[in-house]
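S.,

As promised, the S-adenosylmethionine run. Input:
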Amino acid sequence: MTTEPPNLAAERPYDTNRSDYLDRVAATFGDYKRRSIEFCKLATGERILDVGCGTGQDAVMMAGYVGPSGRVTGIDREASLIAEAQAADDTVDFLVGDVMTLPFDDGLYDCTRADRVFQHLTAPVAALAEMVRVTAVGGRIVVIDVDWDTFVIDASNTELTRRIIRFANDCQACGWAGRQLYGLFHDASLAEVEAYGDSIVVTDLQVTLQLLGLSYFLAEACRASAVTEEEAAAWMAELEQRDTAGRFFAGISGYCVRGQRKD
Ligand SMILES: C[S@@+](CC[C@H](N)C(=O)[O-])C[C@H]1O[C@@H](n2cnc3c(N)ncnc32)[C@H](O)[C@@H]1O
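Predicted complex:
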């Protein structure tokens, strides 16, 4: 039996920086965000910076931890996301800016955080140095990010599955951001460096296609001839069967690292 190739070109482009995408991720996988914010050890009255804040949901959540005597700032290079954040909340300061050149004085913040930003960066060392610069001596820097090579999907063709996952990893500016954070923090001479891992499990094919970007990666892999249309079609047909049978399984891990500025 021949299987029709999926109409991959018709899938909506996967853009992890779109506001509707960010809101869906927060709604679907919010628990990991709460854990990473707890790990910041925020206290009443502190000044907090969320770098690459997107639509600002995490910054607003952190404002609840520092209370009215504290202050949270969110910064993102995408003006449209910042406009949306500003429209949704006026207790947090939101501004447009780049992590590589943060428009703040040295040592301004008690805690500086970034969630899923480092995977997009080609110069993560310089970005972390800039986050450290704007953090007060003794303050915390917390970064959480996915490691795209930990994207797992249960499928019978292990070689093809590995090929697709490797391709997805290589689509990122920094697919190994998750595993590299701990070393980056040590290289930045931070003190008290601690890390934990966090995984999400997805048992719904549509969520995997859309929120984990599988549709996009598969289409791109076909376009780049890393995978043939026939391979993609057969692989998707199996995933759909597994989904219909209630046994589709995917997951991905991220890592969260905290360090303290020494001097
Ligand atoms: C996957 S989104 C995560 C957004 C938000 N932290 C969250 O968890 O919902 C990555 C964000 O990083 C921002 N970003 C990427 N590179 C940046 C840079 N160099 N400076 C500032 N923001 C950046 C993007 O605009 C985007 O909003």
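Residues 16-17, 22, 26, 52-54, 58, 76-78, 81, 98-100, 115-117, 120 surround S-adenosylmethionine (CB under 6 Å). The radius of gyration is 20 Å.

- D.
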